[in-house]
């Protein structure tokens, strides 16, 4: 008998709570669906909200400014290289295979430094410049043991942005390094790192 009274009491409390929630919820739902009435003449100017704050660019650190400056100055000297070689299927029929990689223009004569594995066994080489123009290239020299190669394109002088060769003398572990590449031909990318050893 006691358990039956407890169940009846709990049921009545739960039912009362549900009825209260349903009655209170309907007006709130109706109020939410109505647009607020605002008098434009008497309303004060709106305070800047998150949308206005998002429109303002965040301040840049000195390191970020340095990264951006280097990217803007040197990225036009980074190219995409597409290499095409030919392989043979099981019936000895040739079919083309292509690969892609990055390179850096090192002078205004059209010499480009790249990795040897990018141009290895290539029968055709095509270089895409920052302005999206495409140029046939030829191999000038290779150093497979150091994975280096130099290729050359023929373009009018003065139409290239070159990247000066540097030296590793005096580098110290922990110094910042920036790498600009164009491995997929879509756009130039930049990553940061440090001298690790």
Q: Count the helices. How many?
A: 4
Shape: globular
Low-confidence parts: 26-33
Amount of helix: 25-40%
Average the pLDDT over all residues and give the rounded result. 80
Give Rg in angstroms. 33 Å
What does this structure look like?
The structure is a single chain. With 197 residues, the protein is of the alpha+beta class. It is built from four helices and eight strands, in the order αααβββαβββββ. It has a six-stranded antiparallel beta barrel with strand order 1-2-3-6-5-4. A two-stranded antiparallel ribbon has the order 7-8.
Concise synopsis of the structure shown:
With 197 residues, this protein is α+β, with helices and mostly antiparallel strands.
What key attributes describe this structure?
30% strand; two-stranded antiparallel ribbon; 197 residues
